[in-house]
From TrEMBL:
GO terms for biological process: transmembrane transport. The lineage of its organism: Bacteria, Bacillati, Bacillota, Clostridia, Peptostreptococcales. GO terms for cellular component: plasma membrane. Keywords: Cell membrane, Membrane, Transmembrane, Transmembrane helix, Transport. This is Uncharacterized protein.
Amino acid sequence: MYGGIFMNYVFYSINIIMPIVLVVILGYILKKVSIIDDNFINRSSIIIFKLALPITLFNSMANRSIQLSRDTEFFSFIVFGAVGLISSFIILEFLSRIYIKDKKVRGAFVQGAFRSNYIIIGYPILKSLYGDSIIIEIALLAVLAIPIFNIFSIITLTINSQENIESNKVLLFTNMLKNPMIIGIVLGFLVSSLQIKIPVFLSGTFNIISGLTTPLALICIGALFTFKSFEQEIRPVCVAALFKTILFPLLFTLTAHFIGISGSKLAAIFIVFATPTATSSFIMAKQFNSDSNMAANIVILSTLVSGITIFVGITILRMLSWI
């Protein structure tokens, strides 16, 4: 009896995770057989981050009636998400200063273990778990997470690349204000709150564009995989992936549960910490003259490991009836 129940939870998690993993593998194969190339990946990334993903977030928010709960759990969820992300950065920055002497390695390590691919990987997982009912949690956590990831990534890369922090302040805040994902979420909130009716033809157009987001993004992630130079700096790469995919999800999910966060909100907390390192961390590392090779390897390893850890995490959380 118990074996059958356990297998039900296992198959439930497989059905959530495997489609994402298989599309990532497809991206790797397409690049390997030269059906797609670096130019395709670069152009597709622009379409995803500047068009498809912002429209997806806008469309999801605009088509929902937004009624923010004022109960204690909802408040705890919002505050805990922000405090947890900032705490993870402080922990990494503190430990890296003790154990990593090379500043370029330190910056890439901290960003890699801290910055999450929450929207690209997390959005389809959470939507598979809860459908459109979790859109508010996804969006609110994204509004918090995106600026936090951007601000603290720039801080660690600037400090550890010996750049002048003052010279990057304007860049930091202008990039935040111009972030297409934040713009999409905010506009969606406004349209929903003001009960603005979107014309049917526009809504249909947005739905078609939104359909591009997840498959195109996952194909690009798979296509970025390269297993060269993994031997170099393998220890910090493995430690960063360990923090990103196991230690932080375990620490912050347990803490969230014990302060009373549950259901879809706990699932969102788990996913924001358990999703692999954002591919944009590689680009950021390059821009700040950090160790971009190590940054790329952290993305690869954390993505591979997270396919297992997210599957295991969802299975356990469902068995415990926490989500």
